[in-house]
Fold this sequence. Notes:
Low-confidence stretches: none
Helix content: 25-40%
Region (Disordered): 1-55
Radius of gyration: 14 Å
Mean pLDDT: 80
Order of helices and strands: H
Number of strands: 0
Number of helices: 1
Shape: elongated
Distance between the termini: 18 Å
Structural class: mainly alpha
Amino acid sequence: MSDLSKDTEAQLEEIAEKRVEELPGETALGHRDPEAGGEGEPQDWKGNSDVKLPE
């Protein structure tokens, strides 16, 4: 069972939904797939280092 409060869990789910929309789609070879949506190039994706998480 999770030790997170319901409020924190809801905030994390909201952040995750937004981040998934931003993920650049890619083909099996790692090239950008424009039909998959997202932003930027897969090889330029920096991850979640700039995302402020609830404490």
